[in-house]
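queue> holo job accepted (DOR)
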Amino acid sequence: MRPRGRPANRESAERPELVLAGRAWYHGRLQAIELGIDEAGRICTIGRDRRGARRHDVGDRVLLPSASDLHVHLREPGPPDAGETIATGTVAAAVGGVGLVGEMPNTDPPVTSVDRLEAKAARVQGRAAVDVLLYAAAQENGPLAPLARGAGGFKLYMSPTPGIAAGPEGPALARLLEELARFDLPLAVHAEDPGRFVGARPPVDPVGWDRARPAAAESAAIDHLLGAPDLLRLHVAHVTSAAAAARLRARGVSCEVTPHHLLLAARRGADARFKVNPPLRSESERAALWARFASGDIACVASDHAPHSVASKSEPFARAPSGVPGVETMLPLLLARVGSGALALPVLLRAACDRPARILGQPVGRLAVGHRANLLVVDFRARTPVRADRLRSGCGWSPFEGMAATFPTEHWRDGRRIVQDGEYVGVPDGAVVRPEYAPGETAPRPRDDGRR
Ligand code: DOR
Ligand code: ZN
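queue> job finished
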């Protein structure tokens, strides 16, 4: 068992077993750094010359904390032709620089009972390349208290989603949020109000899909959430509009944006590969979302990795399922933007590494003594186009085909290398993790201010 516990805020007495030397973003600048890693796989020293310990020097390449992806669908358990498994999806995560995934409950069957939660946890053991936090479904009349004892978080769907019923509305929603506030767990919400969907013509392309499920549906759903109790660790998933993100930030509620809403717009005539919920928006809305993200005002980026098979996404638009894969390309696409100067490295580090880890209560995501040595090595000069046939996800396609990406060359997990030269070389010892919030983050808990 890997030792766990809170990160210490002082230098641990242990001698480093290993020193990783390179450059890192530390104390506000990119600088040469040495990270000492102890026997337990934790960062125990920063910035000291430790001769004697085993040393791995990555030269002028950059050492970064691994990312945490708040939102993936690994489809297990699921039908045999599902495009993904815990094994394939977590190797994809590892190669893409993601050391922890938040796995959503709309599997087949959905995680609505303790038995199902335990069955899913059992599937993670010995098969996951990275750590997995399991969300349970937040449903009216569901066994919330027993689920809260084992789950890493709750997920609430406000609109019908494949494999899971939509949550309640009106006073019943308010009661559910009150009840969920009793548990010290994050609540991620899929915020679309189906009452605002427009059913005139069946959509035949992403532009029609955007009209059918407009940003107004997202905005209305957020209205329903803003009365939630202050103690609730509320987090709004895949926000698609800059205005919605601004509103949440003003209210101190954390949210995430996805790489597809940041980088892809709805194009007339595009096929069902670009069908996703919530929909891709117009180019002007996409550009506004990117600008807000790049300014550092959006708390998190998360992939909403939804690895539907090529066959199902080749169906006519109206019949094809919604969702795009992304856990493997999320960080590489954004690292390439950092390399080209379009995105500041500290903005990306906060959104992809630090804040998601804080939301999930994990001692990762920063270069800090006591944190797990879950680290990446990145060469910002290395840019390659995304090619689906080189990706590890089981689904075999990507909506980002051809876009520039910077894949980490190495990924270290608890001080051991699991990716080398971009190839997965680890053993599947990923664990099921649950939040452990640091003492400063106990009640009354201010919601994420979007900046930390
Ligand atoms: O497009 C989507 N696909 N949005 C969701 O919320 C669920 C996801 C899926 O599970 O396929
Ligand atoms: Zn999702």
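queue> Confidence is low (pLDDT under 50) at residues 1-11.
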